[in-house]
Records
---
Amino acid sequence: MTTTELREAILAHLKYALGTDPDRASVTDWRIALSYAIRDRIVDPWFASTQAAEAAKGKRVYYLSMEFLIGRLLEDAVVNLGLMESASAAMSSLGLDLDTVLSDEPDAALGNGGLGRLAACFLESLATVGCPAYGYGIRYEHGLFRQSFVDGRQVESPEDWLRQPHAWEFERPGAAFEIGFGGRVASNAGRTEWTPAESVVAEAYDTPVIGWKGRWANTLRLWSAKPTTFFDLDRFNRGDYYGAAEPEALARTISRVLYPDDTTEEGKRLRLKQEYFFTAASLNDILRRFLSEHDDLRQLPRKVAIQLNDTHPAIAGPELVRLLHDVHGMPLDEAIVTARGCLSYTNHTLLPEALERWSEGLMGSLLPRHLSLIERIDAAHAAAHPDRGITMRENGEVKMGELAFCMAHKVNGVSALHTELMKRTVFSELHRLHPERILNQTNGVTPRRWVLSANPRLSGLLTDAIGEEWVDDLERLHEIEPLAEDAGFREDYAAAKRANKEELASYLRAERGVSVDPEAMFDVQIKRIHEYKRQHLNILEAIALWQEIGDNPNGDWTPRVKIFGGKAAPGYVFAKEIIHLINSVAQVINSDPVTSKFLKIDYPANYNVSLAERLIPASDLSEQISTAGKEASGTGNMKFALNGALTIGTLDGANVEIRELVGAENFFLFGMDADEVMARRAIDGHAARAIEADPRLARALDAIRDGAFSPGERGRFDAIVSNLSQADYFLVSSDFTDYWRAQREVDVAYRDRTAWMRMAILNTARSGWFSSDRTIRSYMSQIWNAQGLLADAGT
Ligand code: 26Q
């Protein structure tokens, strides 16, 4: 598409779709007009892919996820269609800067963090490799809350991404299913029938997902809850206007808001309704599509692969059995086997508090038929394995991990270490019974978003050096390995990093009034705030460093800017204390005239995908410091390594594999490994011992305790101090000394800029394996038995 064609298309949409003219158009109007013009280019490849998939009559993959953390869509589409240059030229011919227009788009934040972002990377890779697939989820009216800081404390407000016209979705009133809750189960002539007491309508909204070079496109289908009747006319006519609107409001509540919480006990009933709502709608849709092409439901596993993104859609097991058995009359045992042939389950956490359990009381009242089917499935499994010591129900609760495991033909972890720990801990018994079921699929990230579009400077350099093929064949980055020894390439690589840092520095100055020196090391920790991720270990090190610089202000310190980003679940009190501590420490340290040329701390509020795209390319050091054994994989760690940030990290999650690939000499390792963590916890008074052995740690904790960061309010952070001195379950105190040591090694290494750049280049060169294209191909061959159809789309 030429610049002129694109320009004409934009102007036409501005006029005919938005009803405005160039003199009156706002940035948002231009952005939406551009989005429509780009969307027009997606529709043909999208149709071609759908038709190719129908013609092939092969297997389709269905990715069921409560979360899709997509971020902005326009830039992704422009990049994948190869229209970056035309779009930029078209916009400037209209007097606009493309970047300004692109950044006007609100993030689609329909996810909390890693699990949701993984789903978004997978969608993009599924399209890039040409695998016929659908993403299924919920069209939340409000995505993840907006975070702001008031006096250093997190304050949440609702997010409103749908307020502006949404150019990417197509409403499908014709694709709708009624979803029931509650009611009675009755047996009739040998057939069991569930009559729900209430129901809502799930209506589909489709967003096309376009792969690299526009060769293939899939669909993300999100369900929105609508009432079965719009309002109660009788009540309206009686003048009861609120009452009349009630059925609609109640129904819509189901897709109103994304759960921001991986910890609290709140809103259980609504959460279970959301899970069943989108799972049932998706399975109905999948069966409808299957039956439009085939007639024998026993063939289902040959045509349908359903991936459960954690246990959130695990009710898919009993629901599919219900559809096959109750509705379509397949014998129960066969229905269970058939369902299992379609289903597979990804586990993303071993933390006991994050493993879903539903009380049988709640499940029985909302989903009575499913509860009875779970009992049948459990009984069948127990009968097949009489020696097994466990069941999927315990203390009046259904354990969704066990249910998902038993109803899946494959169960995967998300990094090598995590998968080993799954076998050894939560699923040890089930693994013994089904030794073939668990397998590893190490996570990945899409290089289109996380390198090509987030880091155009580095991308240009890579393409100049080795051609463009790396974009969808990321292991080709190995070809730049020899260039680590090339002084000219190192300088170019350093210049790209430097320019990214300058851009971030001006952003921080403009948006936050913070001034940072681009010469300093940018040390970044961005992720959800959680005790196991140990942002408090990072801030403790900052405090100790600040004290040491203060003792010796004329020392030869390596200047650093520590940047934090991330949200805490609104109900997670301790995580919110950590946020408050970081902000309070930042305020004191940043205003210290003696130390501030060596150490600054910044914590921009409302971390999201778009901010990650700014921060990662500008980072020198990536903080991946979770307690070993707790971070299932991490995916931010991969984005940093690809963009040439060196990692300081523990042997946790995918850090282990990153270190193996980039080389131990290009990775700053510290801390206990998972086995040492378990042994350390058994030592009485481990925290007190660690503090006693390290005067720096003791002094940093004393400063917090004495109110150095809470003037006039001693004891403000006692919850944190006493946690770290006593129970310290996540072993912050015990790992501090080694973390400090590694950080000082980082300081020394950063001063040798040649050696540092060599290491950074090797990180980029050796991280190509972390492309989500590799992950998706591996799911296709090892779990889904699905074929790519790139050649068939003919686009
Ligand atoms: C559960 C029940 C009720 C309400 C909420 C939840 C809930 C919501 C979100 C539970 C867990 C999550 C999110 C988990 C998550 O993001 N896990 C991360 O997944 C990444 C992708 O595999 C990994 O890289 C991270 O290590 C893992 O923490």
Note: The pocket of 26Q is lined by residues 112-115, 118, 259, 261-262, 271, 348-349, 354, 356, 414, 443, 631-635, 653 (CB under 6 Å).
---
Amino acid sequence: LFRGEIAFLKGVVAMDGLPPADRAEVCFAGRSNVGKSSLINALTGRRGLARTSNTPGRTQEINYFTLGESHYLVDLPGYGFAKAPLPVVERWQRLLRAYLTGRPSLRRAFVLVDGRHGVKEPDEEIMKELDRAAVTFQVVLTKRDKVKGPAFDKVLEQVRGRLAAHPAAFPGIVVTSSEKGEGIDTLRAVIAGIG
Ligand code: GTP
Ligand code: MG
């Protein structure tokens, strides 16, 4: 799947701008700056494909990437703190929620959680919304390279505990570092298994 052609399709700012729901899609959700866009670049092996930044609030549209002819990868704006004017942030937050709960071809939402911090309140809110909408989600821990073993074990334990309360959670937490390439093959295989 990842050997086929991968390209940016479009940035979407309203629900009526979404492409036809005619193929499987997976999306990458998570707090601002957690590493969503970086993960897409690591997965596709294309460094500048999705724009990344140190500043939270970099991705402000729903960005569609085609994965061969059968799948879309969808990079989402972050939730939580963002360096952008409030009305603008509120607009993209509404769009984000409408997308996450109202897209029929969304097969799985990857909820990215920072490997240093674990599940935070805004993650809980999003996971509850996904439960209510019956959208299967799977947690991906990011930035594994930034945290030492013992601290990371605690985070893993916290995340496992939180997931137990969510009916829409897919079992299995994927541990990644976009920086070092850890977990990227695993996540590619997971996506390839989603038809
Ligand atoms: P928004 O679009 O603002 O919501 O952020 P995002 O979730 O798309 O994050 P982005 O991919 O832009 O990455 C944010 C920052 O984290 C950048 O400075 C990245 O270089 C850094 N980063 C992302 N993934 C990793 C990782 O695995 N390891 C390390 N060390 N840094 C990472
Ligand atoms: Mg981004």
Note: The chain has a mean pLDDT of 96.
